[in-house]
Amino acid sequence: MKSMLQRAGVLGVAWGASRPALADYAYNLQPPVSQVARDVFHLHNLIMLVCIGIFIVVFGAMFYSLLKHRKSVGHKAAHFHENTTVEVIWTVIPFIILVGMAYPAAKVVIEMKDTSNPDMTVKITGYQWKWGYDYLNDGVHFYSTLATPREQIDGTAPRDPHYLLEVDQPMVVPVGKRVRLLMTANDVIHSWWVPAFGVKQDAIPGFIRDTWFKADKIGTYRGQCAELCGKDHGFMPIVVKVVSQDDYKAWVAQKKGAAQTAAADNGKTFKLEELVERGKKVYQANCVACHQANGMGLPGTFPALNGSKVATGPIDAHIKIVLHGGRPGTAMVGFADRLSDAEIAAVVTYERNAWNNKMGDAAQPADIAAARGAAAVTAAAQ
Amino acid sequence: MSDAATDHADHGHPVHPTGIMRWLTTTNHKDIGTMYLWFALIMLFSAGTMALLIRAELFHPGLQLMRPDFFNQLTTMHGLIMIFGAIMPAFTGFANWQIPLMLGAPDMAFPRMNNWSFWLLPVAGVMLLGSFWLPGGAVAGGWTMYPPLFIQGGVSYDLTILAIHIMGLSSIMGSINIITTILNMRAPGLTLMKMPLFCWTWLITAYLLIATMPVLAGAVTMLLTDRNFGTHFFNAAGGGDPVMFQHIFWFFGHPEVYILILPAFGIVSQIIPTFARKPLFGYASMVYATASIAILSFIVWAHHMFAVGLPVAAQLFFMFSTMLIAVPTGVKVFNWVATMWKGSLTFETPMLFAIAFVCLFTIGGFSGLVLAMAPVDIQLQDTYYVVAHFHYVLVSGALFAIFAGIYFWLPKWTGHMYNETLGKIHFWFSVVGMNIVFFPMHFLGLAGMPRRIPDYALQFTQFNQIASVGAYIFGFSQLIFVAVVLKAIRGGAKAPDRVWEGAEGLEWTVPSPAPYHTFETAPVVK
Question: Is some CB atom of chain B closer than 8 A to the CB atom of A328?
Answer without folding.
Answer: no
